[in-house]
Amino acid sequence: MSIKTSGLHHVTAIGGDPQRNADFYLRTLGLRLVKTTVNFDDPGTYHLYYGDQSGKPGSLMTFFPWKDAPRGRHGTGQATTTSFSVPEASIGWWKQHLAASGVEAGQIRNADEEDVLTFRDPDGLELALVAHPQGDPRDPWDTKLVPAEHAIRGLHSVTLSVSKEDATAGMLTDGLGLSFANQDSNRLRFAAGEGGPGALVDVLVTPEAPRGLVAAGTVHHVAWRAPDEQTQVEWREELADKGVHVTSILDRQYFRSIYFREPGGTLLEVATDEPGFAIDEPLLELGRALKLPPWLEPNRAEIEAMLPKLNLPSENNPERA
């Protein structure tokens, strides 16, 4: 692969009640809602983007929340754990904070010289907080409930569950330009560039596990970074030349996207770093208003009538956080 990703761009999951989703990710995890928009393919539901102050690529967790969505099934053919990066000395603080918030977490364990704390969101999505011993220089979002000294720095990694590893490993190396990092039993780690938080994917080989079902509480797709549109065009051509069934380039307003599945079944995306979330509202006001792309704007009244009301906690407003 001549083109290589620099790391994760975002992870998109299916959620349940949108208000419960926003309360959890804004208040319990201390992220910022950087864009309130809709699913462009199904504008009757929100698309909520959480991240750091400006929603930089690599900080983003996004959701399609359907209030009455059925629960999914975790298994092979999907991303089964989304991990966030936190400061090395903050894992103990997070365990106490989650307990105080009514979130049951596992025991802190050490893997690959990193401390890991695993838990689930209100819809059953498996999440983890990971403290890397070399730290993470990315700037966090700062709130009263989750102060900057402990706050999430961005995505750390994702775990893909597969029944067989060879074809998936081939896609990660030949399709995304990742390199094999290490193996621990049935878990293989791959890294973009020099690796580290935000540039890692683990492949968990579980041939006995059931096939996953994507619905509430599961990941819909995992997106990787492309620096610009020209690189994405060339990337798409390379994938197509390799026989990969890849979509046309789609306008997601805040980035451009292509989608394809890795052989194990997980839907992957390559998303551009540009143009970002400040193209249609000021940085200080990100996420407060419902933003629609130009082709949906004529239907704003109808769309707003379909969407449930969403009340954002004060943590999302910089002057009151």
Automatic annotation (TrEMBL):
<dbReference type="Pfam" id="PF00903">
    <property type="entry name" value="Glyoxalase"/>
</dbReference>
<dbReference type="InterPro" id="IPR037523">
    <property type="entry name" value="VOC_core"/>
</dbReference>
<dbReference type="InterPro" id="IPR052537">
    <property type="entry name" value="Extradiol_RC_dioxygenase"/>
</dbReference>
<protein>
    <submittedName>
        <fullName>Glyoxalase family protein</fullName>
    </submittedName>
</protein>
<feature type="domain" description="VOC">
    <location>
        <begin position="7"/>
        <end position="132"/>
    </location>
</feature>
<dbReference type="InterPro" id="IPR004360">
    <property type="entry name" value="Glyas_Fos-R_dOase_dom"/>
</dbReference>
<dbReference type="InterPro" id="IPR029068">
    <property type="entry name" value="Glyas_Bleomycin-R_OHBP_Dase"/>
</dbReference>
<feature type="domain" description="VOC">
    <location>
        <begin position="154"/>
        <end position="273"/>
    </location>
</feature>
